[in-house]
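Minimal example, chain plus cytidine-5'-monophosphate.
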Amino acid sequence: MIIAVDGPAASGKGTIARALAVHYDLPHLDTGLLYRAVGVATARAGRDPDVEADAVAGCRIDETLLTDPELRTEVAGALASRVSRHPAVRAALLEYQQAFARQPGGAVLDGRDIGTVIAPDADAKLFVTASTEVRAQRRHREDALTDYDAILADIEARDARDSGRSAAPLRQADDADLLDTTDMTIGAAVQRAIALVEARIRR
Ligand code: C5P
């Protein structure tokens, strides 16, 4: 079974995807981490994330980079959003993600284009969202040292870049179930996600 979980930053999609992976005993891939690694590798090499050839050079990532705590920062998220606009970067990461999705038994993947590009044939697709303010509050609780207004501005800029780009923009797949977590606790959102997947696989 393949489960695709897409949505904007801090919508809760990562937490929901991890919980689904535990619930169904499936491997999980956080695809945002791949783009974050490419963004950080590009910046560390002194290259320009807005230049496609520079960002493509950053795609040759060392696996150990994927565990680097720097990847979890807002700076890395913004770098990821800049490199992910380039079609050649998306193409370089496509095969790895599709092979992960198609492994025997299936998998849970979360990102921006899982239901639309990486696994359009997924058995269940969730599009997880929440209001911009609630998403910024969540990030602010995790990172109290950064000013709330700066986090809100960063999330808005990232949403605009991710939804406005021409290569695999962030959008809900036609056959995805919408899960708005604005007024939900994590526990309630996970329960709802499991109920939506169950309804899909029983069809
Ligand atoms: O999900 P996360 O916040 O870690 O993603 C970081 C950035 O990577 C996103 O803002 C987006 O630009 C990019 N991304 C993407 N496609 C994916 C996953 C992430 O373009 N499947």
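The pocket of cytidine-5'-monophosphate is lined by residues 9, 31-32, 35-36, 77, 80-81, 84, 111-113, 158, 162 (CB under 6 Å). The chain has nine helices and five strands.
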